[in-house]
Amino acid sequence: MKKRWLVGISLALVLAIVGLAGCAAPGQISLVTQEEGIWVTGQGKVSAVPDIVTLRLGIQAQEASVAQAQSQAVEAMDRVMAALIDNGVAEKDIQTQYFSIRQITKWDREKEEEVVVGYRVTNKVTAKIREIDKVGSIIDAVAEAGGDFTRIDSIGFSIDDPSAYYEEARQKAIADAKAKAQQLAELAGVTLGKPTYISEGISYPIYPREIYVGEAPIPAPAVEVAISPGEMEISLTVQVAYTILD
What is the pTM of this model? Predict the structure, then answer.
């Protein structure tokens, strides 16, 4: 009986210690061991020329009735879609992003209330253009097809298959991490061991270039719009932990 009692007390003490370790607040003693070694972060950057352009565009029509506004919007969008397809944009690369029908109101001072003066129909799509040298002519064609209903919101550049750039950036990031760890080891007077932990983080930004934002119509340009893709920076970071041999 005495032995069972002692076993019960020992088990209770173990559970209490584990509970305290798991709930340790900042500044209190914790039984959780800390990782040892040299921890560093390496970064690799690669410049790349975009090969994909994403154009956000659409139409907007406003009339006294929904039917009139809708009719104008449908006709204008049909012409815009035809212009995109005729200029080599695949149907699978055109996607509707936004559609709305809204009342347009104004304040009537005599009645002291909002009155409906018309309806606005907005239809926007994104078009993925894979031939960058045709972007300017496509924008011109869209503006001409949609006429005063045309809206072009923004243009973004990206890379269709960035895997090769990631590989190069990854090599640079690992080399950077190892160089930093080696320097730290030499400064500390220890020998650098093998990596025991590696974590990767990828940053792949798309830089949108705004062409138009607002509600005023875009007139058809007299000359082709000039579009320059420039370069993008693909950045990759790695966190690496190395052992210390002595």
Answer: 0.66
